[in-house]
Amino acid sequence: MPHARREMVRETFVDRPGRALLVLRKNQDRRVRGGHPWVFSNEVQAIQGEASDGDLVEVTDFRGAFLGRAYLNRRSLICARLLTRGRDEIDVEFFVKRLQRAVQLREAVYPGEQALRLVYGESDQLPGLVIDRYGDWLAVQITTLGIEARAELVRAAIERVLAPRGVMRLGDSPLRALEGLALSRAVWWGEVPERIELDHGGFRLEVDLHHGQKTGLFLDQRENRGRAEARARGQRVLDLFCYQGEWALHAARGGAAEAVAVDSSRAALEAAARNAERNGLADRVRLREGDCFDVARELERAGEHFGLVVLDPPALVKSRARLAAGARAYRELNRVAMALLSEGGT
């Protein structure tokens, strides 16, 4: 970033301490003191001073003892999220330091990894911000009003710390709606190709940040896919909700007798087919398009059995209103999966 633009962003978006106070009710400070970064609306006694949603507030207990600085959103059940337990200015330098620390931690554990979650919200004291790296490109999710209001600060920090070739803003998470934010997905800056090819898990894979699910790949299942590969030899393996087929690829490489990958998305299965072909496993992975619940029941009726069944469904309970229906769906899915398992299967 040019020096002049960096200074302009910093001067425009500096948040000064002391603008407003969020005072907690008596005995409602224990969770925050214990390290929890959220303040719920029913824990608030008063907001003193002028503060709009998205603004920073100083959080205190009912006696006025300082607990930290948070951003406010009265429209959310989580009405405040702590950014710091000190009196830091929330400026470009603040985000630069947090990003540097997060990146150092990941690269210490996964040195040289091309596909990696670099920032994960509250885990890195950056609630509402998720950053995934795919080679020279980034996928960024901003899910809260407080970070949305400071998006230019985040951008300036990303440019300084990571210098990506392009960044995709993935603003289509339903969490944004809970914060009163619009849903969208678009290139934030730079150029992001339709398909990014990179090495991940020992495979050459493609990532579609423009139209793919979530943030491109399901990075949180990296170790579990390795465990499945170690158990796959000689087994029939069923991969339900397969997306781009990573579980099936691991099973095939691990010596599975057969790897069947099922998904309702034709685009996902086409990507899975390309991934299998790219890695020399096309003849060992069988792809099937269909509703995974229906396909699983059909396999059950046919008396099919598998030594290893993988379930990685989408979220079926996205709100309290969906709890009962979602719980029934999860129970049915697990029931069918267990019915499909061979004796001693996993």
Automatic annotation (TrEMBL):
Residues 20-104 form the PUA domain. One of its GO terms (cellular component) is cytoplasm. Pfam families: Methyltrans_SAM, PUA_3. It comes from the Bacteria. Its main location: cytoplasm. It is found in: Cytoplasm. The keyword RNA-binding applies. Belongs to the methyltransferase superfamily. RlmI family. PANTHER family: RIBOSOMAL RNA LARGE SUBUNIT METHYLTRANSFERASE, S-ADENOSYLMETHIONINE-DEPENDENT METHYLTRANSFERASE DOMAIN-CONTAINING PROTEIN. This is Class I SAM-dependent rRNA methyltransferase. It comes from Eiseniibacteriota bacterium.
